[in-house]
Amino acid sequence: MRIERITDLSRAELADYTSLTDVSLRRVREPAEGLYLAESPKVIARALRAGHQPRSLLLIEEWIPSIEPLLTEFPDVHVFVGESAQLEQLTGFHMHRGALASMHRPEERSVQSLLAESRRVVILEDLVDHTNVGAIFRSVAALGADAVLLSPACADPLYRRSIRVSMGAVLQVPWARLPSWKTASPLLRDAGYTVAALALSDDAVDLADFIAAVPERVAFMFGTEGNGLSDRALAASDVVVTIPMTHGVDSLNVATAAAVVLWGARTGDQAREK
After folding, report:
1. What is the spatial distance between Cα 272 and Cα 104, in angstroms, rounded to a whole number?
2. Which of 6, 106, 120, 238 is at 20 to 30 A from 192, Cα to Cα?
3. Same domain flag for 182 and 55
4. Listed residues 104, 124, 153: the one ending a domain
5. 165 and 94 share one domain
6. Residue 234 sits in a domain of what CATH number?
């Protein structure tokens, strides 16, 4: 790696890191310019293990020993080093994790290839909260689902907050963007998936009953906070599944619901293996 001490915040090579507040990142740069930001040595290490290519790094001096072993295969990557206050002025936020990496985005996967190599997937329809997206990816990685499919309007998994909340799981879990439901529904059906919509319905199946005989290939589908799944998504589903609740509560946070469903599915798998 090529260490460079920052003396001029206006130099062109630092453009990836300028004014990177959450609002700024949501609106511009990362999707448009083909990059994302990995924050903290742990997440940077996970990105590199996933085969993603670094463009440059931005560090507080004391983090050099933690980062140096990760970059032995990238001798020409620029590592910009500065004081904490200096880097906060550059990025627009306090870098309490000490390290940022500007990473080239990997090529997007095709839905067809992802479905072919998976057995259990999660579909997220129009989730715009990056925290929820990141938390669901973390549950997918932890609880044994194979992949995530995102509707066209769903939040970017490679947004800085999503990556941070997922603890880097978005960098290891395969994901792809679905087309419109008119096209997506036949893709799922042709690949042999049962689409289970998590929603409230008079004819909904209790999660425990569904898990007791979960299909070999299943796609669990989750919608937005408040409105839930769209009518088109529900029409594309094969079954509506609900998590039974008490004390007048009718729903959970979507990330919590996904964790409950995936844990239930894994528990069902383990029970059948005994």
Report:
1. 42
2. 106
3. no
4. 104
5. no
6. 3.40.1280.10
Taking only the tens place, the pLDDT of each residue in 223-253 is 998 889 999 999 999 999 999 999 989 889 9
CATH number at residue 79: 3.30.1330.30
What pLDDT digit, counting tens, does each position of 22-73 carry?
555 545 555 666 888 898 899 999 999 999 999 999 999 899 999 999 999 9
Claim to verify: residue 119 and residue 249 sit in the same structural domain: yes
Q: Is the Cβ–Cβ distance between 105 and 158 less than 8 Å?
A: yes
What's the rounded Cα separation, in Å, for the pair 180 and 225? 20
Helix (H, G, I), strand (E, B) or coil at 163: helix
pLDDT attached to residue 67:
93
Residue 102 near residue 56, CB atoms below 8 Å: yes
**How many domains, in total, are found in the chain?**
2
Q: By the 8 A CB rule, do 146 and 117 touch?
A: yes
Nearest to 180 by CA among 135, 235, 254: 235
Same domain, 100 and 157: no
Letter string b/e over residues 6-40, b meaning 16 or more CB atoms within 10 A of that residue's CB: beeeeeeebebbeebeeeebbeebbeeeebbbbbb
Note down the domain range covering 91.
2-104
Same domain, 167 and 67: no
